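W.,

You were right to be curious about this one. When I first looked at the sequence I had no strong expectations either way, so I just let the prediction run and decided to look at it fresh. Below is the sequence, 826 residues in total, followed by the output.
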Amino acid sequence: MPRELLDAYPQARARYDEMLEAPLTPRPHWRQMVDELTATSPELMRDRLKSVQRQVREDGVTYNVHADPHGADRPWDLDVLPLILPHGEWAQIEAAVAQRARLLDRILEDVYGEQLLLMKGLLPPALVYAHAGYLRPCRGVPVPGGARLHLYAADLARSPDGRWWVVHDRTQTPVGAGYALENRLVISRLFADLFRDLKVTRVAGFFAALRDSLGHWAPKDGGGSPLVVLLTAGPGADTYFEHAYLARYLGLPLVESSDLTVREGCVWLKTLPGLKRVHAILRRLEDESCDPLELRSDSPLGIAGLVDAVRRGNVLIANSLGSGLIESGMLLGFLPRIAEHLLEEPLKMPSVATWWCGEPAALEEAIAHLKQLVIKPAFPQLRFDPEFGEDLSAEARDKLVARMRARPNDFIAQEMVRLSQAPVWDRQHPRRLLARATQLRVYACATPQGYVVMPGGLTRVATGPDVRVVSMQRGGGSKDTWVLSTGPVSAFSLLRREIGPPDLVRAGANLSSRVVENVFWFGRYSERCEDVARLLRVALVRLIDDTPSDRDPGWPGIESLLRHVEIIPAGEKLAEAALLDALRAAIVNDASPGLARDLGLLFGVARQLRERLSVDNWLALNQMMQRLALRKDRPPVALADLLGELDRAIAALMTLAGFALDGMTRDLAWRFMSFGRRIERLQWLCAVLKQALKGGRDADLNWLLELADSSITYRSRYMARPEWLPVLDLLVRDEANPRSIAFQLHGLHDYLRRGEELFGEVLEERLDGALEALRAIDPATDLAQDSARLAQLLDDWSAASARLSEQLALRFFALVGEVNRQTFAT
């Protein structure tokens, strides 16, 4: 192995090295990767590093680290090198994790059922009843299928002698499986040949097992396939990317609590046709936040009545409510005896040595060996940071011991784990490896055949060489995890039977009212961004090309529109420099009215629709937002650069429109997005034409055609300078022009007609009067001569579109409580 690669790689002394079994000697399962790194040029490795970072940014992979200034937009940290595990070692991990998941599921069943473990003294009652995670309303509540722990994760660490320990159990809402999947997709492409030659086991079968098991255990009501949803706290959640990513990958509707309601003991999804029965919920909410009626009354995230629906057996919750109880480290010291009692076999993998200080002997043992231990809270409601005994001064040690003796039940003591080290690529050097502490999070899901373990998992990496705690909230990184196979790599067999006629799903059937509202506003904001970008470009070109004394005759109309969208103040005449500053702010500053702010609104809505946007669609959006962030940090100064930014923004927005036109299924989501686009375009056209009419019949009209993206159409038809009659005919009456008022009105009327076929007569504003007024226009008078008549029509059409938007919101976007014509769709 070249010494150059290991110049900054320390020799492992008191810890295990994942890559090297001796200095310069890689372990057998690492040799092919080491050979690959040795043969790879520095230029190719730089390209690989850039490719990883670019794909993470373009895919929008984020993790919300609360102390990070980027907040929810902090990019996911992924190292280019995977952690590699041989087949034999993995077989032992797999068996141990499956056993542990089975054991913890049995413990949950007992604690919320007969409680024999408490009666026999195998589990101290004080650890259960004093735990905030013990949900008394869930005692005795049955669960469909009998499984309570549907998805489990174990945090593993390797001891200096190479053995694996469990350091933490994740039983409430185990996170990270979606990030592990994203890591696999990125890294496997970089080392495609090596990935194939090493026979790395695929992970897709694990996710198929999870999805199909939830459908298998969900309560049946005879109405076809059960509806399974993924419940999220929303875009503000730390791991919202994963929620959206998994929902799309598993094919599940991503819902928030406001999308669900409990009626007659069942959970229902608020969809456009009405309320649709939900049979299973893969939740990403903490236990106590799930039901404000019976659990935590001040929770804004829960669904009132959910516990009652579970109690009646009408909905499956994964994981079951109250499963957070066994996530605390206080349980670890009692697991060996409980395993012997419940499973009649010893634990296949030990937990890190843990003592609950509520036992007098354990308290004295912990105090006697405090320097070798870490002191942690026994219960989640006790919020204090772990204290490392070796770091404490004599005074601090005495204070901690006094606290432990005063309230022993509140503390656990754990042996300090010397985490193994694995190689990471040095991003500041073209050809060098660094060593970082690592932990492995392994996932298991319950199936009718037993627990299935994901081959690999999420490898987490410490932030620096001397960091003792690996935590994503402390800014840690991650790796892909490769489990090598000794035989052919085969796909996981699905549990589900073949899809039959009763299982067929119509597009858009499970759209929630919240999703539809966001789709509608996605259409409006994308159209608004394009309109403002075109206006800014038209204005900027004229400011660059013309002097104040020789300005384009259409400038008054342009200036009036700039005031209309609040880019420049109303009623104030700006000097040239101030005008340019206002346009620059509108392009680069999201705190000012204009393109930057509207793009921020568009991206905010897009985040709500993350699981419904195609990869290409999201890529185009993400690239726009990255350019916006760069403009904010380093705003362009030259006017030519500002024009270039506008050109790129318009091109990207046209790409988004192309995705909508050519890439979206013509379902309800597409229709409501088109509602939004056409309403926004209609209102914009009315505003633009009104401002143009104020300029008088002698004004230049080139700017008007540019704003309406109709210059080429006009020139190809008339081959003459723009005149009022043909321009107005093109922009008002021409049904073939997608930038005309007629095109918008006819399209909206058609959508309303189709909506009536689905939902019945639902809206008062049907645009019949607007269409009659359009057909009654006389070109000779209304277009060629009577500006007042046309201005009134423009006001009427704009008002009609506003009424339509309001009625759509009331009918479809506010499905709370009793709603007119509400139906139950099972």
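Here's what jumped out at me. The first strand starts at residue 20 and ends at 22. And, maybe more interesting for your project: The chain has four domains: 83-330+420-430+433-486, 353-415, 514-664, 666-815.

Coffee later to discuss?

I.
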